[in-house]
Amino acid sequence: MARRTPEEILAQRDAWMARKAAREAGEDIPIIPPLKPGEEPPEVDTAAAEAAVETVESEEAVSEPAEREAAEEAAPAPEPQPAQPPSGGGAPKPPASGPRSPEEVLAQREAWMARKAAKAAGVEPPPALKPEPAAAPKPAAPPAAPAAPKPRAATPAPRKREEPKPDAVDPNITRRELLNYAWLASIGLFAAQTVGLSLWFAFPNFLQGQFGGEFPIGSASSVLPEVNARPIPFTDGKFWLINLDTEGPAGEPRTGVLAIFKVCTHLGCLYEWVDVTFRFECPCHGSKFALTGDYLAGPARRSLDRFVIKAKDAAGNIRTQTNENGDPLIVEPDDILVIDTGLIIQGTSDIIPA
Amino acid sequence: MDIPGMGFVNNLFEKGVKQTVSDKIDETTRAVLAGIGVKETRALLRGEAPTEKPNPRYRAQVKSFMLHIRPKFYQEGSTWFTHTFRLGMLSTLLFVIETITGLILMVYYTPAPEIAYFDMLNILSNVNYGKFMRDMHRLGAELMVIFVTLHMVRVYFTGSYKHPRQFTWLTGVVLLLLTLFLSFSGYLLPWDQLAFWAVTIGTSMADAAPLVGYQANLILRGSQDIGAGGLLRFYLLHVLLLPLVAIIFISVHYYKVAREHSISLPAAIEEGEAPPAKVAAAKRKIDILPDLLTSELMWISVVTTAMIVAVSFFYSAALEHHADPLKTPLHTTAPWYFLWLQGMLKLGDKTWWGVIIPTIIFLILFAVPYIDPGPSRLAKNRKAGVTVGILTSIVIVVLSFMGTGLWGVAAPPAVELVQEFIPEEGVGLIREIPYEEMFIGQYHTDDPNTWPAGELGLVFSEMAEAAHRESEKADNNFFEGKMMMEIEQWSPVLKRLTITVLWEEIPEGSTTNERVENSYKKIFFFHENANYRLLE
């Protein structure tokens, strides 16, 4: 069926209601069967339909006030009640052209204003379903509302347009809905994976021999400095290699190997080893550190940072490595030492005087 | 005093917690989804009618930036798969995929000749998912060229370039050119032999252009030879200028499709050659939300998954040796979408075949809507156009074959035989054999007793077959071909492979047909730790 214009819809409706009314009144009018798919509706004789409607509605206009009061009490309205009273819903067709009493005019006007106010309040009253309590006082509630559920055999139910039904979404989940959720979830998962993958991609990997990676420096017997002697610098790895057998500032033992980061813990300069005073001194702001890496003086707020040393055996397995406090590591002479510049342990700030 | 949040707190007391929270969620949903609330979203996902007036789905298309460029609805006939094959949408999807993977790869790439190749090695071996991203980018580029071309072919054969879509066709041909140039400019960036020489050939064609060739060549390359300047210029083209222009043209192209003349319906429908029921079905309107959006999401998922599977199991982008301006490898070839051009170049003068004829071809492409102005799109009313289209496709395919190394540039048979099994660039059958299975010894193709075992033996039997095949050919002056392979332990971690080809030939200028023996020898080294399978 092609789309009908509003005028066509109304004309067909009125024609149908006229036929219904005529049938009630006793005339023998055959029932027109519903259209089959692809069939066009027959031409509606609009003039005849309108005339029939006017007759019907003039009858109805007379009986309206009575009908409304009756409807208020939910009493059965007088038969026959052919046509949908205009106040009951969204029928845009104006009421019959026959003379109406002033009370009717007022009643209709008030009903119309009530509908208008209801619309302005944002609620579209489905015709004849709900009386509108929050709107302006409506002396006549839509009469068809309480009347419609009544089994009035000859009365057509008020014809509704396709009104939106805000509460009509079925709480039961449909297959389409479930599948849509599943697909959206999987797309969301994929998006999350893409973000994660991009981050993982962007995270740098450092090669061996590159600062940030591991530096295998050789076997302990060949590469370590003398015990308590001056430290050995490693430029690419940015660390000093120190061999200790002495005590810390509080008397605790410091025995083993340390790999101390060359960057000063104050503001990032590279400090120097000064033979004359046998300690580390930073040229930028004068921070001073002992051979053990402990803070001695200056604006730095913690002792020197150190790297994790991994002592590996000949097969490449890690035999032992620097503990989480960064204490010097005791190694065997044939251990292979690997300094991991990706793992840094910060110096303590305990010994800084207040 | 208006304290922010007091409205929320007041509502908590007035309406209760549950109501307030659900109202807030609905409000937030509407803010994010351009006016579509929770209930309406559910109705969307269920495929039901709108729950509000006015239709919030249409309103969303007006209020939302992301949705505003979509048409309100499609006609069902234009969504039939066999009409468009979704090629236009897939081309745009691939452009987006290329942009994303390209941006990601930019994290690890520097466009300087000293660094670029090593950045590629870094991406392939040291970066998490680096090989994956690179392969996705390369596969996406090749697919994009394919889809853009197929899209153009589809539009041509359905006659959808006719009024009122002429300007859209024009922007489409521009987009085809942009796609080809994007692919070509990206080709240089790995800075390997393949990249370097392919782009040398391409820019030399620019040099061959009449009048402006010399200047065009210099502007593209930044100097006489491709070097640091050329690499940087190609990088900027590939990453900035061409994508910007492409985005502008894609926007114009799609805006006209979405807003002005929509996707065409099949010609039979539009011109009344189809039964009315089919016409009615074709003209039915399908809203963007939710049906077309879910269809597009499906296609995005399918294509992305297919690419990921392909890259994970089947596809690998090659990386040849470091670019060497002093040596052009055998079988240097243009990328496959330019093979037709390389085929034409083998026919004659480079200015004529390399510049003028391709320009004429593209001018004809631009002018197609005006060469064929008849209003009917049906194939039966465009017999000449359809015939020309089919013939052109065949010619392009033939030219592409001519552009490969198989035609016209063959080296002597002996060199080709060795190249077949250990190519100068690429892996080849012999390099795939694991180091442990390269057994020391001497092997002759005409004495099966000497043939080795295992994978090496299989490859060697193929070499015997290839030599036999070459000998059987009538016109290559190559008779009684034999191959010999010797593997020696050259150092504790190194094996040396010598391949010798022995054959008989008739010397040039000889009056008698007497054959003379000849041989060709090439030496290769194999390291214990080499892993050729990574780059195959």
Describe it for me?
The complex is a heterodimer of chains A (354) and B (536). With 354 residues, chain A is of the alpha+beta class. Chain A has 3 domains: 6-147, no CATH class; 175-204; 214-345, Rieske Iron-sulfur Protein (3-layer Sandwich). Chain A is built from 6 helices and 11 strands. In chain A, the strands form 3 sheets. Chain A has a 4-stranded antiparallel beta sheet. In chain A, helix 1 crosses helix 2. By secondary structure, chain B is of the alpha+beta class. Chain B folds into 3 domains: 6-68, no CATH class; 75-403, Up-down Bundle (Cytochrome Bc1 Complex, Chain C); 413-535, no CATH class. Helix content of chain B is 59%, strand content 9%. Chain B has helices spanning 6-15, 17-32, 38-46, 56-63, 65-68, 76-79, 81-84, 87-105, 113-125, 130-157, 166-188, 193-207, 213-221, 228-261, 267-270, 276-283, 288-314, 339-345, 350-371, 383-403, 413-421, 428-431, 454-472; strands spanning 73-75, 285-287, 441-444, 479-491, 494-505, 516-527. In chain B, the strands form 2 sheets. A 4-stranded antiparallel beta sheet of chain B has the order 3-4-5-6, covered by helices on one side. In chain B, strands 1-2 form a two-stranded antiparallel ribbon. In chain B, a hairpin with a 2-residue loop joins strand 4 (479-491) and strand 5 (494-505). In chain B, helix 8 (87-105) packs across helix 17 (288-314), helix 9 (113-125) packs across helix 10 and helix 18 crosses helix 20 (383-403). The relative contact order of chain B is 0.08. Classes of the chains: A alpha+beta (354), B alpha+beta (536). The A-B interface holds A 124, 162, 164-166, 168-169, 174, 176-177, 180-181, 183, 186-187, 190, 197-198, 200-203, 205, 207 and B 39, 42-43, 45-53, 104, 107, 126-130, 133, 290, 294, 297-298, 301, 304.
